[in-house]
Amino acid sequence: xxxxPKKVDIIFSPxxxxxxxxxxxxxxxxxxxxxxxxxxxxxxxxxxxxFPTGMKWKFAAEQKGSVKYVICNADxxxxxxxxxxxxxxxVPRKVISGMAICAWVTGSTQGxxxxxxxxxxxxxxxxxxxxxxxxxxxxxxxNFNLQIFLGAGAYVCGEETALIESMEGKRGEPxxxxxxxxxxxxxxxxxxxxxxxxxxxxxxVCRIGAIEYKKFGTSDQRxxxxxxxxxxxxxxxxxxxxLGMSVESFVSEFGDGDTKAVQVGGVAGFCVPRKDFAKAIIxxxxxxxxxxxxxxxxxxxxxxxxxxxxxxxxxxxGQCTPCRIGCQQLLKGIEAVKKGEKPAEYLDQLLKLSxxxxxxxxxxxxxxxxxxxxxxxxxxxxxMIF
Amino acid sequence: MANKITLTIDGHQVTxxxxxxxxxxxxxxxxxIPTLCHHEDLCVAGNCRICVVEQVGKQxxxxxxxxxxxxxxxxxxxxxxxxxxxxxIMALLVSEHNTxxxxxxxxxxxxxxxxxxxxxxxxxIYMSVLKKxxxxxxxxxxxVEKDNSKCIRCQRCVRTCADIQHVNALAVTERGKDMKxxxxxxxxxxxxxxxxxxxCITHCPTGALTERRxxxxxxxxxxxxxxxxxxxxxxxVRVALGEMLGYPVGTRVTGKMVTALKKMxxxxxxxxxxxxxxxxxxEGTELLGRLKDALVHKKPVSxxxxxxxxxxxxxxxxxxxxxxxGHLSSCKSPQQMFGALAKTYYAxxxxxxxxxxxxxxxxxxxxxxxxxxxxxxxxxxxxxxxxGLTTRELGYxxxxxxxxxxxxxxxxxxxxxxxxTGAAVIFGATGGVMEAALRTVYxxxxxxxxxxxxxxxxxxxxxxxIKAASVKFENCLPEYSxxxxxxxxxxxxxxxxxxxxxxxxxxxxxxxxxxxEIMACPGGCIGGGGQPIPTTNEIRQKRIDAIYAxxxxxxxxxxxxxxxxxxxxxxxxxxxxxxxxxHLLHTKYRKRNRY
Lengths: 386, 595
Ligand SMILES: Cc1cc2nc3c(=O)[nH]c(=O)nc-3n(C[C@H](O)[C@H](O)[C@H](O)COP(=O)(O)O)c2cc1C
Ligand code: SF4
Ligand code: SF4
Ligand code: SF4
Ligand code: FES
Known about the structure:
The structure holds 2 protein chains of 2 kinds. Chain A is α/β, with parallel strands linked by helices. Chain A has 15 helices and 9 strands. In chain A, a hairpin with a 5-residue loop joins strand 5 and strand 6 (237-242). The longest helix of chain A has 19 residues, at 321-339. By secondary structure, chain B is of the alpha/beta class. Chain B has 4 domains: 4-78, Ubiquitin-like (UB roll) (Roll); 126-211, Alpha-Beta Plaits; 215-274 and 335-407, 3-Layer(aba) Sandwich (Rossmann fold), CATH 3.40.50; 281-331 and 422-585, Fe-only Hydrogenase (Larger Subunit), Chain L, domain 3. Chain B has helices spanning 22-28, 80-95, 111-118, 156-164, 199-203, 215-223, 235-238, 241-244, 254-264, 272-295, 311-320, 334-350, 367-372, 391-400, 422-425, 432-446, 496-508, 537-552, 563-573, 579-585; strands at residues 4-9, 12-17, 52-55, 62-63, 74-76, 144-146, 171-173, 180-182, 209-211, 228-233, 268-271, 305-306, 357-363, 387-390, 466-472, 487-494, 515-519. In chain B, a hairpin with a 6-residue loop joins strand 7 (171-173) and strand 8. Chain B starts with a strand and ends in a 10-residue tail after the last helix. The A-B interface holds A 154, 156, 171, 173, 176, 178, 312-322, 324-329, 332-333, 336, 349, 352-353, 356, 358-362, 367 and B 44-50, 52, 60-61, 63, 66-68, 81, 84-85, 88-89, 92-93, 95-96, 125-127, 129, 152-153, 155, 172, 174-179. The complex binds flavin mononucleotide (FMN), iron/sulfur cluster (3 copies) and FE2/S2 (inorganic) cluster. FE2/S2 (inorganic) cluster binds at residues 35-38, 46-51, 63, 65-66 of chain B. One iron/sulfur cluster (SF4) binds next to helix 4 of chain B.
């Protein structure tokens, strides 16, 4: 019997304490202690790159200068991801608490929630929550002004430096890194950018403590994580699961009994074929945004890949050569192989190209195309050809 | 040593200043890394990715132009991984490209072509993703042609227009596969706020941006026996043309150029310097008039007065500061003065029907093409200047003519309107017009030469973006006694970014100056949009050095001593700012849209 994935109830648990009690309690401790707690919890960013959150905050706290920013990345543009929306709708105070704690430990007085334009309908409620927060923050003497910023409406604007560019009124193109946002971010000032879920999780770590939090997950993937589950599943939706489960156990819970592949981590993630279900672990560096798409045997993996590449060819910002042209070549290439205009071996050329794209692209978008491309082409080669 | 960084590149230890890119650090030890989007004039973009290197310990390759060197870095600039990646990048660029090098204006002078040859790119690996729409060339502007099918999206033009010129005519539009360089509302180049300066052209690595070419029309005119074809060449051309013809940067080729043009069939080869000297007389008189109005008659006149030789600058102020057009000198540029006189004074003296004169200008400039076609530039009764050619076009025409340029004898400009002074020559460099004006104005006011050794007014020279200087008038001649003890404050700006700083001061009412020289292009005309490509600061400086050397070598170095200038006043114009001058040599400006 495969073990079922363990459902966890931390992030969505109803508020168990008075509003902003977590913030108030946390502020009674020392900043160093709070950062140490976060580092020890092993919490990693939930937005994509998986950078250790405690470390990010520590670096930001160490930056000199009195002006620093905290930005909550609620751009949620990854297809098949909708957990950030749910968080902002159901537990906004946890997110805001996380931001406030971050502001307090890093010495920032201004924060933004970069909200995907499609989520505009959340603004009214969210603004009410911000007003409540402002009231409470004054009580504890925290000077942190929070504002909503409506996004520019492109997937790439979720990339933290493109996000900052777009907030500065420029075209949403990723910047060269280094310097990283914590050194040189919004308006050239040190800036912490974290995902919505990261902030919520950070506030939960502050509430229950690193020791409790670490009880969930595996040695390198601590805690729980939200998964947006879509595709051929009778249970589509957002679930909080313990990290470190196998794809097999995931499929046994969420699949429809006929699962042939699972795309873990959205378009930027990997496609796991049935033969690898038992050995592939979700949470092994591939969870990224938590989008998990389930495909049953009625699906053409060629169509799936075609959709992804279409998406990439449209959503690349287009500035850098490997990503702008590479995405078009991969798309055109699989079409040509499918139509018999190019030999099947052309797929190998394309695999090499996708590797060049990974090596040379400027940002995570172009660098991660190869993840889905190579995993789908390698595992479903016949579907690409016939 | 806090400001020094030590890293290892290909096994060599290198120590560089903090902030140096890996690319520049490698250059210091003679390692060449290929680049495309990089240009030393511009801010870092890091988008072409051809400059990738391996940074040991890093998962992905590193763009060397965009990454600062750091202590302890270990860099490889050549490895199988790098070679494969670069070759792929080249192959991708070629797959998006309209690879018609044989018919491309930039062939043999194209950075993409050179690299794809170096990397021996196989054009058949990837399928063409060239877009049909991109193949429609925008030829609407008199000055700049835009061909998206040759564009590699390096954004050098965008950065040039934004950072050097503060015009923002070109911008990135669309995303992903449709991303391209376009204009406001995708309007054609003649309908947007573009100064025609051509700096985008000289910063473009490929044939995507070029000047509109007119040499076929010129050849046709030369071949037509009815036509009397004359050419005047600007000072900046003679110190840069050699670069097109196999000479090292900074070589003066004045004499050979004159010979070549004569051999090519121009009926008369004349010197724009003549009208540069004339400009100094007219503009100097205008300035003295304004100063007198202000100081003696207490009339409200527009001071500072600003030079008007640079048509890119003129269009800039017409768009951006139309409420301050009164500050401009009413003098036409030397090119347009020349054109107006060619079809009047010259025609009369030579007994040629002006209808049969084809007047060509050899210019370091793209904006002069537009200027020649301004409707107000028809004071001779004809289009005063029929065509403006860039230094590049001239270079190609000389090549087309089959002359062995380097073996030509030197020759002198024809007469009339071929006489020049050192003061006119230095018009080609930033600060030159100011220096020429000061040499003459100081003499007019005091009867003495400017108090600088060898007439060299060094404070107004050099590549600094904005230069300021002052000259005190003492022991003035009686008619200029109103200037006694006055300290004339002058400024020089080049590059429209710097022009904007000057104009913002004027708009704010805080400009301390009496007279300002502004040139649209960095370095002045020697760095013009029609000059040989590439242009960098090192190249600008060498051309400038050549200009001042040419000045030093001239027997006459002050405009008011030009004998042909004296002659034209005696025979034709009578007095500076007189009726004829007013009609032929001065012009008006117009307000243009800000967007
Ligand atoms: C193309 C692209 C899109 C991204 N979109 C998002 C997004 O919608 N939301 C998000 O939180 N992070 C997104 N990221 C990741 C961010 O760049 C950044 O790593 C993240 O916001 C950092 O927060 P974290 O450390 O809390 O994950 C994206 C990255 C890339 C390359
Ligand atoms: S990798 Fe793609 S999305 Fe990222 S900077 Fe390059 S073109 Fe833009
Ligand atoms: S731009 Fe360069 S590579 Fe392209 S056609 Fe012209 S010369 Fe050839
Ligand atoms: S037009 Fe030239 S400079 Fe501009 S992006 Fe294209 S290739 Fe680069
Ligand atoms: S030259 Fe470095 S990325 Fe273009």
